Amino acid sequence: MMMQFKKTRMLLIFSLFILTLALTSCFGTGTPAQNTEATTAEATANEEASTYTVTFDLNGGTLVSGELEQQVEEGGSATAPQAENDGAELTWDGDFTYVSSNITVTAQWEKKELTSTEVADIVQKGTVSINCEYYNGSTGGGSGFFIDNEGTIVTSYHVIEYAADINVEVPDGGKYDVESVIAFSELNDLAKLKINMQDSPGLTISTDEVKVGEAVYANGSALGTLSGTFTSGTVSSASRDVNGIDCIQMDAAISSGNSGGPLVNSYAEVIGVNAMSYVEGENLNLAVKINNLEDLADNEVNYSVKSYEEWIMKESDRSYSLYDPSLEGTYYSTINTYTSVTGQSCVASVDFDGETYDGYVDGCEYYAYEYVAAEADQYVEYLNSKGFSFDEREEFDEGVSYYYYNDWNGAFVDMFQDHDGYLSIWVYYLY
């Protein structure tokens, strides 16, 4: 019996063993290979979960070196790329030294104030000398500066007025003939020229508000021969109206020949175009505000220099009056030139129907001013510079007329001095 029981128990144990193998085959508990794969997948998932992306947004800057997108393990640090943006100082708006999630950090650019020597180095590379031969055979010129890398130059209009030939000398000594007069405005005393020069060192135009007391620097060809003359000063008035032009008054020294050169701030950005000085004062210098350049967009002509010469020979009377084709044979003033020359405001304007208006009104037949002998003399000098010469004096019951004649365009200017102390300016054309 005992032996029978043992055999039966052994058979039962063997049967259970066989049953266990069968159940394992059907349902499985995982082979060693399968368990290894699961462990690897789980580790990979854990590894992926702890690696994050750091993205660097240059916000208008230019990449110099480094990577803009980086994979960083949790707790690790990204490496900031090197970037530049017109000399501005770079900071980032987020922390990327301990990364715990996907993040984007954005560049913050702050303009860097430059030393005077740094300003000079930038500005002098972008400033040029402008040489002109005028229709009457005389020579002269001034200064200008590049505003892009395609050879576009800004200067004062009075530098090129009456020019028959214009060439530009760049800082390295190279000379270029002007290909075109892109645009000009006598009212704003600004002009844009084009030469065939690629990669010209254009200066940056400031968009900041000019402030009294800020440091400024002027550059240009003083006296027409001393190229690269660099002077410093401060803004005396941020907005000075001069003959209707919004100007900056500063004490940075400028001389004849500086006209058209750049006036820049401490970031080497152009804020004005050097234009003129008050000879009766000390350190009273003026630059046309650079935002006046926007008005030239409506004055684009793209003349060749020859076409400009033809235009100026035909239409140079624009400097004191302008022909209106809708009024046959009639010319009228487009800017208050007597005020531009003398600084005196117009007292009254009289239109072609005899209607009188207080102050200056464009498009009238003649204009009246308070008579001041010295100012009238200034205006005569101005007319002489435009090709006029004294013709005759004629007396009337009301006063005396002084006629000045321009023989190449047939223009007469009548300066009528009445007995009440007023001076009226008339313009006539004989042909």
Please compute the radius of gyration using only Cα atoms: 39 Å
Distance between termini?
A: 154 Å
How confident overall, as mean pLDDT? Answer: 84
The helix-and-strand class reads: alpha+beta
Short characterization:
The chain is of the alpha+beta class.
What features would you describe in this structure?
This protein is α+β, with helices and mostly antiparallel strands and 431 residues long. It has 4 domains: 2-30; 51-110, Immunoglobulin-like, CATH 2.60.40; 113-309, Thrombin, subunit H (Beta Barrel); 320-429, 2-Layer Sandwich (Double Stranded RNA Binding Domain). Helix content is 21%, strand content 40%. The strands form 6 sheets. The chain has an 8-stranded antiparallel sheet. Strands 25-24-26-30-29-28-27 form a 7-stranded antiparallel sheet, covered by helices on one side. The chain has a 6-stranded antiparallel β-barrel with strand order 15-16-17-20-19-18. A hairpin with a 2-residue loop joins β16 (226-242) and β17 (245-250). The longest helix has 26 residues, at 2-27.
